[in-house]
Amino acid sequence: MALFCFHCRDGEAGERLREIHRETHLAHIAANLHDYAVAGPLKQDGKIIGSMLVIKAEDDDDARAKLEADPYFTAGVWQSIRVDAFTPLFGDWMPPDSETD
User: Fold this and answer.
1) CA–CA gap between residue 88 and residue 73 (Å, rounded)
2) Which residue in 50, 53, 86, 90 could disulfide with 6, CB within 3.0 to 4.6 Å?
3) What value does the mean pLDDT of the chain take?
4) Structural contact between residues 43 and 49, judged by C-beta atoms closer than 8 angstroms
């Protein structure tokens, strides 16, 4: 499995749409917890402005499909989404038997 980091910024209606879809979004995350290395809100001045999700997937297409199944995606909470493959080298996410280059 590879890791893919999704940086999702809310649109203008993000706050309202988050409120409407929060419960189904959280239920979706809980039901698919095995697909996430980490997930949580992005904040600025204490206000939620987006989400960061690190998704475990076989490839880019698999990661994107998992993101698109999220109720926040289907409801249009996120206005912009950037994705990058992510390889942990240091810290808590580093695989125990990996080596750095």
Assistant:
1) 26
2) 53
3) 92
4) yes
Q: What is the pLDDT of residues 48-83, one digit of tens each?
A: 999 999 999 999 999 999 999 999 999 999 999 999
Q: Six-digit token pair at 26?
A: 């959280």
Q: Where are the domains of the chain?
A: 2-86
Cα–Cα distance measured from residue 100 to residue 87, given in angstroms and rounded to the nearest whole number: 10
Supply φ then ψ for residue 56, to 5 degrees: -90, 125
Residue carrying the six token digits 């297409």: 61
Strands 78-86 and 2-10: antiparallel
Contact 36, 54 (CB under 8 A): yes
CATH, domain range 2-86: 3.30.70.1060
